[in-house]
Write a structure and sequence with these properties.
Helix content: over 70%
Number of strands: 0
Radius of gyration: 20 Å
Distance between the termini: 50 Å
Structural class: mainly alpha
Shape: elongated
């Protein structure tokens, strides 16, 4: 019971740590924005004329809703796999398989089902977009290989150390590629302005 509780705390801490790191800049930006609002006249809110009931169809593309899951899931899976090489091997193996399976599924959804199709991009931005796509598909394949290797190691090789090391290497490769993918995705959105309010992306109805 104590071992299970400790494993749960490790998993929770890993998720919380990744989420905090991933959204650290957003928290800072929110604070800066709040300070800026305090300095502005309070007689008018810039966005009040745009306030309306939001639905899922309000999003020009569903890609942003799913794309964050692989980033967290694959990085957490890699960290827990590394921990599992030394402690709680059996428990961690099951947890890593579950998280990795979710990571592969959400990666597939982000790259294929809810893929964001860009349009009207400049040559420079298009190169960045293509690199973003290449790294996303590389993430899909490396994470899928990691899942196959993990299943083979867990059920057939009974967690042999060399097999677990192979899984660890594959997982950290996918963690790196998904981080690079997310980095370029963030640059496309926050620097180049691709995506917000449907700018430079095809809308839902274009894929039906």
């Amino acid at each position: 019971m104590k071992k299970t509780t400790l494993v749960f705390l490790i998993v929770f801490s890993a998720f919380f740590g990744i989420e905090t790191y991933a959204h650290g800049d957003e928290v800072k930006e929110t604070k800066d924005t709040s300070m800026a609002k305090m300095e502005m006249p309070t007689t008018h809110l810039m966005c009040e004329d745009k306030m309306q009931m939001q639905t899922m169809d309000s999003f020009p593309n569903y890609h942003p809703l799913i794309a964050h899951f692989p980033i967290v899931l694959l990085i957490v899976a890699a960290l827990l796999q590394l921990i599992g090489l030394f402690v709680f091997k059996k428990e961690m193996s099951w947890i890593v398989m579950g998280i990795l399976l979710a990571g592969v599924i959400t990666t597939f959804l982000a790259t294929n089902v809810f893929h964001a199709h860009a349009k009207d991009l400049s040559e420079k931005v298009n190169e960045m977009f293509e690199l973003h796509e290449k790294m996303a598909y590389l993430t899909l394949w490396t994470s899928l290989l990691a899942l196959v290797a993990k299943i083979a190691s867990h059920f057939f090789l009974l967690g042999k150390r060399w097999a677990e090391i192979v899984v660890t290497l594959l997982l950290f490769t996918s963690a790196i590629t998904v981080s690079i993918t997310g980095h370029h995705g963030a640059k496309l959105v926050y620097i180049e302005g691709v995506g917000p309010q449907g700018k430079c992306v095809e809308m839902h109805e274009n894929h039906h």
